[in-house]
Amino acid sequence: MSTFTAAVHQNEFLAADATQAHAVVTVTAPDDLGATTQAERCVALVVDSSGSMSNPIAKIHAARKALVTAIEALPDGTRFCVIAGDHRARLVYPPRGRDMAVASDQTRGEATRASKDIKPSGGTAISTWLDLAREMFEGYDDAIRAAYLITDGRNESEEPDVLQRALARCVGVFQCDARGVGDKWVVDELRGITSALLGELDIVKDPGEMEADFTAFLDRVLGKAVREVRLRIWNPKGATVSHLKQVSPSIEDLTTAATEEGPLARSWSTGAWAPGEVRDYHLAVDVPAGDVGQEKLAARVTLVVDGEDATQALVRAIWTDDHALTTRIDPQVAHYTGQADLAAAIREGLAARRAGDQAEATVKLGKAVQLAHEAGNEGTVRMLAKVVEVEDPATGTVRLRSKVDELDEMELDTRSTRTVRVTATGSGGDGSGA
Amino acid sequence: MQPDTAPTTAPDPDPSPEDASTDGASTDSEVSAVSAPADACPTCGEEVHASDRWCEACGGELDGTSTAETIDTPCPACGVGAIVAGWCDSCGVAAPDPRDHVEADHGTVAVVSDVGHHHHRNEDAFAVHVGDDGAAVLVVCDGVSSTIHPERASAAAAEAALDVLRATPTDLVAAHAAAQAAVVAVPAPPHADLGNPSCTFLGASWDPSTGLVRLGGLGDCRAYLVPDDPRHDAHVLTLDDSWAHEAIASGRDPELVADDPMAEAITRWLGRDADLSWTPSLTEHVVTEPGHLVLCSDGLWKYVPEPAALRAVMPDGTPLTRAAGLVRVALDAGGQDNITVAVLRVSPATLEPTSQEPST
């Protein structure tokens, strides 16, 4: 089996008084990943069964139908469970106990029948759903463990810190994709879940889209071939990681999720990987000022694949008094800095709009249009255009629309962190994803 | 072949009568090759050799982790950590590069190359061979700093040119062609701002039996001839391929030219961007009196461009003393660039090859 690659993109030249080194590290999984091993998979399907899911009734019908489709698609041998959540969590299938079911014709049939019985009532306390999922996942430490959680509303039945504490208990146990259906849920609430649990966030605008979304989730999980890749970053004495962000396929700030590994190294989990996957990371390292002509390591990045050290890549710093060398910005670093600015501009613009500050919203969303246009992020331009009228994308001249569909605004908010990559022929692509 | 990571030593000052050659990029390793499993390049995944410094497929740098070579003395920068796989495991400083200071002493011919005070690596390279009859061939190459991995270009060029000159000492055109081909073949990752690996080239051939110096070059390395007799002027034997020279040659005012920011730009070089029609400027010089031939990169002559100025600062003594002394002059004057100086003892052809007395 071939190895992961970790390509470092950076301008290694720093001016004499510069104290921060930046690099983009592109991590690529080999196309034959997992060819010689077969990882076990555990899947939890977590569905909102609160009272609002019956309003309209189509929602719960669609959820049940989507569940059934997903269950029927589970390959034999996959471990799974179905959880219905309102202000408490209930194990729908298997009928009792702590062990996950093993997919077979029989268990799929039983789970399908049980899922058709889910009746909506009650409030929403997502911490209970996560805690039950965690109990079910515990004990399958060597498996790829992924949950799919879908909700239609606010986490109204508990305080925010209760959810935070539950998330902290779940970190490292399973990854969780989250979906908000309709327009009554809170983007930041679900983003908190997917950020902490290394999952993907998205909106399901119409209940009719649920079935396809459940199936897509299953395809993604079944496609994963290794359980966990960790990034271990070693810094020499005096240097420290200032930030570590995943910047492609979406922006996630990983910085605070580090595990200490001795005085000079920390590591971060990046969850499960599929063959051929590519993700980019932006690393910034604070370094002590150096002498002109000196070359030092700023960081050594090691990919740890299912517990085994694999590829290593180096981030260097070379101090020079040659301005021609220090004033260059690596194109990848520049691109992703721009993409991060774009995500921030969208977030701030939408917040200003919700707060009624039209002037600020226009400025920020206009800047977002300009940045998205420059980066060739056409998907994001299209989403922005549903919230603002775009007069000139190149200059970011926009006008706020007086009537904006709440779903469109939430879609923009949810997908604001999606990025496009720099390709050999220049950046471009559809920032809205698949 | 890639430069060795083992620490370098000055070669034996009494070379064996057979053969003496060194190049200022790779030295015979005193550490036996570490047999380690083949590794994969972190950038492109292709297989690499354990001792390689860069990937032959994509040009990406390797950290030599698979050799896991540890040097026993503590890190020269912090005194705390150990140099492991090319970097200090405490302060992170890069292992001293053997190319930072290289000396080759073959008695009548000596070469010294130094990284200088401002650059982080030595992008100059040289290669020299002296036969048992005192005939010498020598190549000096200066990597172009504004390109990617110029140090790989200069090392490849010097080695390839020397191979040709050892076989056919008078064929500087073939030596240049081999050097150009070697630089074109240097693997390097594509880069948005930096051009392809490039370097200058100056080859020299000295035949004491005929008293003939042959030179061939592209770029701005220079050769000076400094007679022993102080009443006879020293002079430059080469013409720079620089914008300034070409401007002056076409009639522009030398003072205005010297002040122009373009003045130092070189107009010919080796590399993928070189014009295939470029051939080296060739010079032949018959030595009529004893003296020294000095070949150098611009790291020296930028400080002492005029032949008289260079002569004034060159110490007396052996070629090694002279070469090392001139390098020291450049370092003391600022060491803004890499410095390479080769000094050859030359004298007129005589019927008795050992006679070195100046003729009256």
Report a brief summary of the structure.
The complex is a heterodimer of chains A (434) and B (360). Chain A is of the alpha+beta class. Chain A has 11 helices and 22 strands.
Describe this protein's structure.
The complex is a heterodimer of chains A (434) and B (360). In chain A, the strands form five sheets. In chain A, strands 4, 5, 6, 7, 8, 9 and 10 form a seven-stranded mixed sheet that branches. In chain A, strands 2-18-17-11-15-14 form a six-stranded mixed sheet, with no helix packed on it. In chain A, strands 1-3-16-12-13 form a five-stranded antiparallel sheet, with helices on one face. Chain A has helices at residues 57-72, 105-116, 126-137, 160-170, 187-196, 210-223, 323-326, 331-354, 358-374, 378-384, 406-415; strands at residues 5-9, 13-14, 20-28, 41-48, 79-85, 89-93, 101-102, 144-151, 175-181, 201-204, 229-234, 240-248, 252-253, 259-260, 265-269, 278-286, 295-305, 308-319, 388-392, 397-400, 422-423, 426-427. The relative contact order of chain A is 0.14. By secondary structure, chain A is of the alpha+beta class. The longest helix of chain A has 24 residues, at 331-354. In chain A, α1 runs parallel beside α6. Chain B is α+β, with helices and mostly antiparallel strands and 360 residues long. Chain B has helices at 150-167, 172-184, 243-249, 254-259, 298-301, 307-313, 319-332, and strands spanning 19-23, 39-40, 47-48, 70-74, 82-84, 87-88, 101-105, 109-114, 124-131, 136-142, 198-199, 201-207, 212-218, 222-227, 235-236, 270-271, 281-286, 291-296, 339-346. In chain B, the strands form five sheets. Chain B has a six-stranded antiparallel sheet, with helices on one face. In chain B, 19% of the residues lie in helices and 25% in strands.
